[in-house]
């Protein structure tokens, strides 16, 4: 499912589910079947709130409700399994370390490019 903020549209697949639903499910650690059930619940909620399935209000309410339901389900599963919580934290910490390394590399590269453009040979700007 693709929700375009400017056009307020949801792109659906042939099963009447959002195209990004499998991605959201995998990211939250849910099965596709469970994610589809959550989508049906979010869709029914949006129809009750807006009265139609063709409006941009329906799309926004359905997506907001789907994200809330997926977050709640993922949190519930995390509290049931401490190993799952530990594994997700480790994955998060590993991605943070890579982000920090990339940021450090970017800063170093920009510094050397700036120094080479100014013609200064040393790091110290007061001595050159």
Q: Short summary of the structure?
A:
The protein is mostly helical and 128 residues long.
Sheet with the most strands: spatial strand order? 1-2
What proportion of the residues is helical, as a percent range? 55-70%
Residue fraction in strands: under 5%
Rg: 23 Å
Mean of all residue-level pLDDT scores: 78
Counting helices, strands and paired strands, the structural category is: mainly alpha
Straight-line distance between termini: 57 Å
Quick one: biggest sheet? 2 strands, antiparallel
Low-pLDDT segments: 1-9
The count of DSSP E runs of length 2 or more, i.e. the number of strands, is 2
Q: Secondary-structure element sequence?
A: EEHHHH
SS summary, helix count: 4
Query: What is the 3D form?
Result: elongated
Which features characterize this protein?
128 residues, mainly alpha, two-stranded antiparallel ribbon, 4 helices, 70% helix, elongated
Structure description:
The chain is built from four helices and two strands; from the N terminus they run ββαααα. With 128 residues, the chain is mainly alpha-helical. The chain has a domain at 2-81. The protein has a two-stranded antiparallel sheet with strand order 1-2. β1 and β2 (9-11) form a beta hairpin. α1 (21-28) crosses α2 (32-50), α2 packs across α3 and α3 (56-80) packs across α4. The longest helix has 37 residues, at 82-118. The model is unreliable at 1-9 (pLDDT under 50).
